[in-house]
Amino acid sequence: MSAGMKKSPSNGSEKILSCEEQQAKINEVKKLIGTLPDKLSIYCSDASISRYLRARSWNVKKATKMLKDTLKWRSEYKPEEIPWKEVAREAETGKIYRSNYFDKQGRPVLVMRPRCQNSKSTKGQIKYLVYCMENAVLNLPPGQEQMVWMIDFEGFNMSHISVKVTRETAHVLQNRYPERLGLAILYNPPKFFEPFFSMVKPFLEPKTYNKVRFVYSDDVNTKKIMEDLFDMNKLEAVFGGNDTSGFDINKYAERMKEDDKKMPTMWTRGNPSLAASEPAITGAALSLDSLKLEPDSDASDNEKTDGSSSQGIEPEVASDHDEPVAASTGNATQGVH
Fold first, then answer.
1. Number of domains comprising the chain
2. CA–CA distance, 45 with 275 (Å, rounded to integer)
3. 231 and 191 belong to one structural domain
4. Which residues of 163-192 are buried (b: 16+ CB within 10 A; e: fewer)?
5. Model pTM?
6. Residues whose CB is less than 8 angstroms from the CB of residue 267 and which lie 6 or more positions away in sequence, other chains included
7. I need a labelling partner for 249 at 20 to 30 A (CA). Which of 22, 59, 96, 173 fits?
8. Are residues 123 and 259 both part of a single domain?
């Protein structure tokens, strides 16, 4: 996002916010959040708060509620501490993986292959999804906040559809990783998928839905779409590119283990991409109670869904403030913010 003007809907028209107005809203959220334990304070950088504000159309009250919920979730779930060894079983079929190339905007690419689902554990599937999101954020290049989701529908059938997993996937992506999704490409979805997509559409926020693109290999416009987005020599053959190397779990595991070693550096004050502007806070005496999570009837849409828990998982997907729309870890169709 540029540091210039931002648009957000207001009474049916678009309201323009200057850089100064945006910063004022960021400062307002900081004041409402208050002091936090060190890791959470680092998480609440201006850039991070801005994503929550954009996700809630610069509504300070709703953005603060959304951010507080996420801080409580991060405190309990500890997503940045999930090691590769805890999700390796879920990952071995390549149902979700971070590709070794970026799009032309420098956005990392997460590939999802619903046919490769290898688990019936919703908890395990969502944990792996969270691991993948944390890993993708770790690998964002300087100045880039978003990623691309590519859903490969080859071999997809009705058995890969799970409304529950899709809903929870959407919740995680939209509410825990707002504004991380740049684009979600649904590649060769079968005809029978369309009714299912219509059914899960209510789980998606308009910003997310508008980032979804249906792409078909037999469509004359598809090649141009992919060429505009990617270096075709790096793009995988299954998406119309020239790379035929395929997914190798052994090589991927080594990449992830190396990334696990880098993760702690992301949560230090010296990290320019996450460091908060406030001075370090010791936080030893602080607890989740400091987040003061009180009910807010004006909170926001899509925040709680059936079967969600504060420490476990809640849904999310592709949107101007989230991610894709397809099978979370091989089920249905989820979406990336």
1. 2
2. 6
3. yes
4. eebbbbbbbbbbbbbbbbbbbbbbbbbeee
5. 0.78
6. 39, 42, 80, 274
7. 173
8. yes
